[in-house]
């Protein structure tokens, strides 16, 4: 063996948490690069791995290194910057190599799925007539099949031909053997973008000329794009101020320079209008093929899309958080729309935040990152104040449209007046009627699906809880069941109280289903449609409903806030927030921020056309800060007050939080190991770490598992995670206890 054999360092897909070294056979020396997928031997098995380094120092004598067996794809599936991003993910989020690979590389690619080949068939033309006559006599089925194939203008898919004629495979094979037809394998191009996604109707619009403010924001971003250095811009623009047009102009700047663009949205399915607009602009650019990356792509589409990016055919990706790992080459611009959205946070290990990863990737690639929002996160706001991010502001709505007027209804007074529980206040009911009479549209938001939030015994106060989770069950009237929104468990509603036998069981609290009912009783002749995850089970229903809403076939939409993202309907002049308190009175330091963002985003759906909009917010705590600031439309003032209180308590963004959860079916075991872990950490980092717990999680039992958490506060996440991983190695857990790290958690329950 020659001494200059190339050694590669490989991350394996199959659970090894350290890199292994392999030798490259000389046939692969040129082609295998960092980012290439390779098939390698592991013991007596074979597995797929990712080359993370080439020409590295082997940890064994060369002779003992095994040879790489095969290059899975001719092009690397990850770029050098993505490899570095992977190492960072591993460190920062405390993830294993396998976690990182599974997160960054889509399944079909990781498993080495091959591009699809389909057999095409054509007839041999110059067949003598006697041969055909003989065939007709002796094998009429073959003859019939031959005639059909010969009659086609170009080669046809074999599968299609067989199914159309219901011809037998035997007849086909017969023809093949006789040399009367020819077969060829062709690679099938699956379309990587889904025409059914995205609100196309909405997209076909007139040419747009940026207004003065938009142009200034665009110039500021374009200047950074031209400079080609890592710079993060916060595009802070009120709802309806035309942020998307600024993104599009900036994207064109990057594409013009031959660069590629990554565009992240909180959820593709929920932002059909944004996606539709981008698609219509960028799928036209023949040289800048756009890929829409979303969860309902088939495996084949996923593979093709990934490869189109890896080999540079596609230069634009629009997608939800996992698109942040798209193998774009020559990246020039990264955009994160609605950067404040909690949906960017992944809720499985590694629990990464799409926005944070996007910023870090931009840093690694030395490119421009634009974060856009009408209600920036405290994290981004602080980075502006610290001078880390550039601020570009859009203060006015397009065509100087007014921001909607917000009325806050004090539900305590409402209840005192009517002496009974109220779902829709007099004011909101009046305004709903008024809009309907005028032929204008309204949207009502309530952040809870189902009919009632709880089934309560009015005698003893017993609440029906899920038997697997420590949360109340929600009543769904459509199928007359109680459902657990955490684990999906279903049960029949009780006839009598299991505690006191009383029959006085009542539903309490309203969900979307009940609001739909109440509204239908207020506006019996209006067309009211409900839209939430329950109605969205059916594919395309969401898009259809939005289409009908735009055409004016629907008068009033009732939905959870999840549907509010980026909707732009000019005829909506009233938005109601049925219960603003749902997100407010929860034990979470982000409750104020979340509530404020919801109120502003939701009211941003009103008055986007020529008619002015109004918002009605119902609450039992009208003086709460987020409600008052939202009412006055004072985003800056809210951010100032909120950041002060965060600083006072040294909550994020002033320090990072790491949450560690221990769970087990056996509560005692979960506590025991959590405490053991905490003691080890204390001993190891004596006095150098601030931590709290273990304590029971707010939702103590979930899916039959008891849960306890420890909280760590730090300025240096990677440093802390290194220590915690070391402790993890010292505290082996039994099989029935699981622990997970959540760095920068968005949920504290
Ligand atoms: P935002 O994302 O800030 O809420 P959008 O980008 O959705 O705002 O823009 C709101 C509406 O204004 C859209 O219908 C968009 O097509 C339109 N719009 C944006 N910029 C312009 C412009 N310069 N001239 C005319 N219409 C515009
Ligand atoms: Zn009872
Ligand atoms: Zn449950």
Automatic annotation (TrEMBL):
Report a single Gene Ontology molecular function: DNA binding
Specify the domain of life of the species encoding this protein. Bacteria
Q: Which family does it belong to?
A: Belongs to the helicase family. PriA subfamily.
How does the record describe its quaternary structure? Component of the replication restart primosome.
* Name of the protein this chain belongs to: Replication restart protein PriA
Positions with a binding annotation for Zn(2+) 2: 466, 469, 484, 487
Q: Which PANTHER family match?
A: PRIMOSOMAL PROTEIN N
Top EC class for this record: isomerase
Naming one, the record's GO cellular component terms include: primosome complex
Quote the function comment for this protein.
Answer: Initiates the restart of stalled replication forks, which reloads the replicative helicase on sites other than the origin of replication. Recognizes and binds to abandoned replication forks and remodels them to uncover a helicase loading site. Promotes assembly of the primosome at these replication forks.
Per UniProt, the cofactor note for this protein states: Binds 2 zinc ions per subunit.
Its source organism is Pelagicoccus mobilis
Q: What is its EC number?
A: 5.6.2.4
- What keywords are assigned to this protein? ATP-binding, DNA replication, DNA-binding, Helicase, Hydrolase, Isomerase, Metal-binding, Nucleotide-binding, Primosome, Zinc
Q: Where does Zn(2+) 1 bind?
A: 457, 460, 497, 500
Q: Which cofactor does it need?
A: Zn(2+)
What SMART domains does the annotation carry?
DEXDc, HELICc
Show where the Helicase ATP-binding domain sits.
Answer: 224-394
Catalytic activity reported = ATP + H2O = ADP + phosphate + H(+); Couples ATP hydrolysis with the unwinding of duplex DNA by translocating in the 3'-5' direction
**UniProt cross-references to Pfam families, sorted A to Z:** DEAD, Helicase_C, PriA_3primeBD, PriA_C, Zn_ribbon_PriA
* Annotated GO biological process: DNA recombination; DNA replication initiation; DNA replication, synthesis of primer; double-strand break repair
> What's the gene?
priA
Domain (Helicase C-terminal) spans 492-657
């Amino acid at each position: 063996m020659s001494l200059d054999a190339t050694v590669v360092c490989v991350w394996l897909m199959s659970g090894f948490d350290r890199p292994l070294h392999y030798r490259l056979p000389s046939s692969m020396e040129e082609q295998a690069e960092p980012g290439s997928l390779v098939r390698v031997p592991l013991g007596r098995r074979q597995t797929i791995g990712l080359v993370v380094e080439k020409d590295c120092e082997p940890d064994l004598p060369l002779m003992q290194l095994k040879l790489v067996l095969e290059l899975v794809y001719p092009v690397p599936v990850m770029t050098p910057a993505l490899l570095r991003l992977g190492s960072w993910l591993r460190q920062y989020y405390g993830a294993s190599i396998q976690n990182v690979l599974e997160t960054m590389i889509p399944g079909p690619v990781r498993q080495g799925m091959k591009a699809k080949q389909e057999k095409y068939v054509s007839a041999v033309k110059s067949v003598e007539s006697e041969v055909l006559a003989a065939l007709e006599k002796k094998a009429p089925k073959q003859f019939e099949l031959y005639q059909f194939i010969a009659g086609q203008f170009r080669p046809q898919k074999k599968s299609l031909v067989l199914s159309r004629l219901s011809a037998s495979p035997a007849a086909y094979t017969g023809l093949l053997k006789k040399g009367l037809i020819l077969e060829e394998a062709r690679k099938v191009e699956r379309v990587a973008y889904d025409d059914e996604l995205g609100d196309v109707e909405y997209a076909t619009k007139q040419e747009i000329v940026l207004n003065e403010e938009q142009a200034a924001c665009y110039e500021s971003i374009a200047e950074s794009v031209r400079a080609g250095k890592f710079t993060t811009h916060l595009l802070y623009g009120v709802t309806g101020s035309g942020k998307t047009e600024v993104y599009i102009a900036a994207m064109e700047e990057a594409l013009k320079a031959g660069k590629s663009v990554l565009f992240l949205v909180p959820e593709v399915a929920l932002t059909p209008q944004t996606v539709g607009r981008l698609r219509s602009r960028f799928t036209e650019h023949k040289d800048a093929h756009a890929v829409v990356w979303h969860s309902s792509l088939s495996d084949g589409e996923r593979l093709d899309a990934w490869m189109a990016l890896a080999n540079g055919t596609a230069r634009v990706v629009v997608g939800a958080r996992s698109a942040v790992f798209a193998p774009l080459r020559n990246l020039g611009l990264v955009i994160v729309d609605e950067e404040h959205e909690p949906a960017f946070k992944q809720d499985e290990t590694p629990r990464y935040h799409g926005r944070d990863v996007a910023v870090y990737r931009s840093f690694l690639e030395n490119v421009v990152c634009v974060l856009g929002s009408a209600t920036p996160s405290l994290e981004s706001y602080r980075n502006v104040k610290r001078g880390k991010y550039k601020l570009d502001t859009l203060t006015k709505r397009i065509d100087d449209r007014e921001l909607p007027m917000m009325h806050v209804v004090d539900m305590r007074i409402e209840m005192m007046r009517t002496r009974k529980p109220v779902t829709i206040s007099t004011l909101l009911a009046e305004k709903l009627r008024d809009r309907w009479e005028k032929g204008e549209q309204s949207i009502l938001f309530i952040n809870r699906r189902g009919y009632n939030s709880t089934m309560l015994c009015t005698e003893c106060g017993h609440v029906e809880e899920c038997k697997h989770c420590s949360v109340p069950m929600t009543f769904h009237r459509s199928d007359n069941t109680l459902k657990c929104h955490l684990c999906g468990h279903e049960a029949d509603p009780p006839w009598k109280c299991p505690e006191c036998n009383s029959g006085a069981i009542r539903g309490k609290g309203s969900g979307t289903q009940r609001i739909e009912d109440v509204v239908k009783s207020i506006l019996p002749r209006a067309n009211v449609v409900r839209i939430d995850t329950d109605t969205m089970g059916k594919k395309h229903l969401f898009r259809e409903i939005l289409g009908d809403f735009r055409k004016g076939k629907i008068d009033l939409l009732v939905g959870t806030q999840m549907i509010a993202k980026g909707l732009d309907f000019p005829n909506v002049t009233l938005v109601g927030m049925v219960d603003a308190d749902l997100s407010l009175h929860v034990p979470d330091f982000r409750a104020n921020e979340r509530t404020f963002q919801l109120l502003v985003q939701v009211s941003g759906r009103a008055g986007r056309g020529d008619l002015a909009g109004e918002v009605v917010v119902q609450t039992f705590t009208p003086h709460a800060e987020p409600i008052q600031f939202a009412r006055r439309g004072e985003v800056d003032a809210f951010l100032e007050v909120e950041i002060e209180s965060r600083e006072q308590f040294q909550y994020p963004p002033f320090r990072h939080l790491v949450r560690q959860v221990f769970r087990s079916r056996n509560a005692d075991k979960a506590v025991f190991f959590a405490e053991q872990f905490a003691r080890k950490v204390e001993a190891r980092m004596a006095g150098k770490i601030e931590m709290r717990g273990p304590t029971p999680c707010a939702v103590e039992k979930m899916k039959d598992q008891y849960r306890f958490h420890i909280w760590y506060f730090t300025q240096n996440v990677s440093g802390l995670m290194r220590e915690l991983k070391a402790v993890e190695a010292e505290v082996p857990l039994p099989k029935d206890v699981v622990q997970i790290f959540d760095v920068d958690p968005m949920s504290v329950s």
